[in-house]
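note to self: the first set is below, dont mix up w the second
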Amino acid sequence: MSYKVMHICLSDGWGGLEMYPARIIPELQRQGWEAHGLALAGSRVAESLAAAGIEPLTVLSRGRALLQVGRILAYLRRHGIEVLHCHKSSDLRLGALLATLRPTLRLFFTDHMGVTRPKKDLYHRWAYGQITRLFAISEATLKRNLAAFPLPPERIRRLYLGIDLSPYAPQLDAVAREALREELGVAVGQVAIGLPGRLTDGKGHAVWLEGLARLRERAPSLSWHGVLIGGLTAREGSDEAYVAQLRTRVAELGLVEHVTFTGFRPDLPRLFEALDIVCVPSRNEAFGLTVVEAMAAGKAIVGADSGAIPELLEAGCGRLAAPHDPVAWAEAMAELGQDAALRQRLGQAACARAALHFDVTTHVKALISEYAGKESKP
């Protein structure tokens, strides 16, 4: 077979799902595969693919993509592409149509979101029936996938996501780190407690802020500063109305002088260096990419005891707190905030676990093994 794959992501949003193709393209190429992309014209996905070194085929809308199926098939034939990989369930209409019209295509789908309802009606039986392999990104989503999708268990596989770990290795000297902390509003000697990620409902910002308010009571002698890392606009992947609600709640809790909104930052690995504790209070993560990034950076982590996060953050690598309990968050942050040696031990264990299980090289090796597999579609 030809070692070529087209990643299809017709999304105008910007999150982990949309970032995935560009994240793995360099490693795909390093392992001998030629990558192509199909994206919406002008989207962040299209921009990220171009930045990763490939010029994607673009369409104006999902509807236009279906109308231009002949153009897409011609592109696949011209480039000798036999593998398609979809990342949004809505893109499977196109992927399944392409696979129906050209039965030699192998179609893969990653369920990045974690399906929440059964998909076994006539349409979904047809669309998912064209899939060679469906990837669940955690054990938590695998259970839901097995129950929801009209596929036999052997065609669904759990495949953890992976990242390039190298950017998260420390690079700043003491002076540069202190300068960055000062830029983030963290005073000398303060414990920096960060929450990275999109500012959207479901990511747990509210319980984290409530936890910070209670942290003042739980550990009155602890000097700390909270850092909210994430875009503040829709273009940057955040919910602007939600951002406004968070700012209001910060004021109501008397935390204006204690919490910094950084806005979008392209230097997240360096920001991790400036933090002492990383919090991920998302209520129902299908995977938890931010957790893995913080692990790779060797940070002490508090994660929500829900979704896939407990799988990633095993005992000895961090702390878990109930996603709706601000008191539990305050207690976990107080424990880590008051014990620098504990933070170091947890961070070292987390970093070792990330290297063992969540490296992009390992992920892509498993992925291309599936791409090149001998299984045939029914």
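second set (the one i keep forgetting abt)
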Amino acid sequence: MRRFAMPIVLLGLFSCEKEVHIHSTNTVSQLVIEGKIEQGAYPVVVLSHSLGYFSGLDSTQTKNNYVHGATITVTDNGYNYDLREYSRDTVGGSIYYYTADSSRQPNRGIPGHNYGLKIVAEGKTYISSTTIPSSHMTLDSIWYKRVLYDGDSNYAELRVRISDPPEKGNFVRYFTKRNREPFYPGLFSTENDDLVNGAPSNITLDRGINRNEKIDYQTYAYFRLKDTVTVKFCGIDRATYNFWRTLDFSFNNNGNPFSSPIVIVGNIPETQGYWGGYSVQYATIIMTD
């Protein structure tokens, strides 16, 4: 049984991709791009400015950190369409993002398609591309196993069986949703087929977590009996995998005085962030007694 977690190594990327070094000092602000297009959905892009390591953070600063008025164009196999800026109110304040104008009925994300991204913001142009994989690791089955921890037998591990295509170089990222919670990524949210290429494999999926909350490292990975759990299992390309792999590693080493500086690997030159395509598969289980 393998646990869904990444080995402690850093990966290189293609020469055209930017490596962003994170230092514990104040640096010149960069554009931060969080962009994705999922199978069956419109693209979503969030633009903001990076903050210095010692910068204070409050709701006003967060609101002012968004980048407005950008021109964003997505290219889908030669067909171009622009994104519009929208906002949504949340408990923590307004969120600003760019997505397609549904009234113009652009194509939603399609596996196998390549998606170009062009952003013109604050006098500069940024270009990237991604693919929604058409061939990727998939979920075959899902189950759970009761776990006894500190005398409590109501904990449960989530386990899945996955299949992998015969060709090497498949990557996934996963999320879990527990009851009415949102989907959260796992603490180590990515996996590749280096060790299981072309073969089925049984693995344990840790519970996805809200990284803004304090983490109990003894029990965070477990669910509870009677939980309804949905897994969101996403095929991604290598660049998207490398971004989240190194970001997960950075998050999990934050505050460790003995760790080396982490290189967050993005695929949009001269920025922090990424543009990624996701194929999507869902599976749900109720953890009965």
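remember for set 2: The first helix runs from residue 59 to 64.
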